[in-house]
Amino acid sequence: MKTSISVVCYKWKVLANGESPLMLRVAKDGRRTIKSLGIAVNPNHWDFDRNEPKSNCPNKELINKIILKTRLELQEKLLEKKANREEFTANSLVNEEESIKAQTVEEFYLHLIAELKEKGQVGTSYAYLSSYRMLKNFNRGRRLNFTFSHIDANYCRRFEEWLRTKGDKDTTISYQLRTLRAAFNRAIEARVVSRDKSPFVEYKLSHLNTKTMKRALSKSDILRIIHCDCSSGKPTRRLAQDLFAFSYLCGGISFVDIANLTPRNIVDNRLVYQRQKTHGGINLPLSPEAQKLIAKYADYQQGADYLFPILHCKRHITPMQKTNRVRKVCHQVNQELRALGKELGISADVTTYVARHSFATVLKKSGVNIGIISQALGHQDIKTTQIYLDSFDNEQIDDAMKLLA
Question: Which of 24, 97, 164, 370 has the most Cβ atoms closer than 10 angstroms to its Cβ?
């Protein structure tokens, strides 16, 4: 039903000076709400047919100015509600203290990405940039000139199907939709869209199978990678082997954390650092083998102020420069590790991340308590550690079942 907005002279109430208050009146769905404008007028100076002051009204210009301003503010709020497809009543429209800001998905994403980069949260900005580009491709390359209210459960289903036509698996699809959900939640917090418009109440991500393939290697395969002779190989191959070994020997430390290590992270033959991802503190003993790997790059450390030749204090200064450099070297290292794995006849896809999974699995198979493994990995939730170890638990079950025959 159409919403009507008008200003009326409330002649049924007469003030001490003989004037009656001017009231804002909004009607919708058969219900009306009135609210005082804070001004009054003598009923003799008010045209009740046109709902405006007569020409002989002493304060005509001031009253008209206030009426026009009030009407425009309410009309703007009404248009925002309709654009965002928000439900509202006459009362909520008049008395709502803060209205939803009109902003397109395009505007919100670009502002969010720029804001995150400015704060130094480059990794997070890349995630939203990837999401923005994917949504734009889904929109046939056109700008996202629609509000978040346009993104409903049906939109999410169509987006999922489009991703499948590209050949994406459930893990990738889940990542894209989780990032979209995170952006939607940020838009809710920024009052760009109403909370009750979230499509993720109806559209659940739980139907996507995000269980990852086994990434851990056996201890024997790990040792083959660590001890194979790469001395005659190119520098990138030797660095890849050293970083893989260091990660495995030092609690499955992630590549980005290795990249950010400096000599100050070595304290009394222990590795003490704060995780880049969770900011949790890690304190682990350095084995003789790990200390040898660090000593191997002693010359680099003096000028670069980093333990390994990934970052350099004079060349990689801003968060963006550091992030770009880490991503580039990680890609190069993983290419070398994959090639090395194939040369050694290892069927699994060997990457720096495999070293982290393998560290956890080898300890689990050795009988180490999962709580200790979780602490070494720097996980904030032991459930995350359990994900790393699911494949090992399945192997235990398989071996146990063999005893039945």
Answer: 24
Tell me, what DSSP letter sits at residue 318? Answer: S
Contact indicator for 162, 200 with CB cutoff of 8 Å: no
Instruction: For the chain, give the number of residues.
Output: 405
* DSSP labels, 108-157: HHHHHHHHHHHTT-HHHHHHHHHHHHHHHHHTTT----S-GGG--HHHHH
Is the whole-model pTM more than 0.70?
no
Say if residues 306 and 283 touch (Cβ distance below 8 Å).
Answer: no
The first and second tokens of residue 329, run together, are 């070297």
Q: Helix axis angle, 235-249 relative to 288-295, nearest 10°?
A: 150
The residue behind tokens 């949504």 is 135
Q: Is 273 helix (H, G, I), strand (E, B) or coil?
A: strand
Tell me the three state secondary structure of residue 193.
Answer: coil
Count other C-beta atoms under 10 Å from residue 47's C-beta.
12
In this predicted model, what pLDDT tens digit does every residue of 214-253 receive, in sequence order? 567 888 888 999 999 988 888 999 999 999 999 988 888 8
| CB of 93 closer than 8 Å to CB of 82 | no
Q: In this predicted model, what pLDDT tens digit does every residue of 372-401 receive, in sequence order?
A: 666 666 666 666 666 656 554 545 545 544
Select from 244, 253, 246, 249 the least CA-distant residue to 341. 244
Helix (H) or strand (E) holding 284: strand 281-285
Task: Decide: 27 and 90 in contact? Cβ < 8 Å.
Answer: yes
Other C-beta atoms closer than 10 Å to the C-beta of 182 total 15
Alpha-carbon span 255 to 333, nearest angstrom: 10
285, β-bridge pairs: 270
Backbone angles phi, psi at 404, to 5 degrees: -75, -25
Q: Which of 388, 401, 396 lies closest to 213, judged by CA?
A: 388
For residues 349 and 337, the answer to whether their CB atoms sit within 8 Å is no
Q: What span, in angstroms and rounded, lies between the C-alpha atoms of 142 and 33? A: 42
Find the helix or strand (DSSP H, E) in which 5 lies: strand 4-9
314 three-state secondary structure: coil
One-letter amino acid at 141 equals: G
**How many angstroms separate the first and last alpha carbons of the chain?**
73
Strand order in the sheet with 270-274: 266-267, 270-274, 281-285
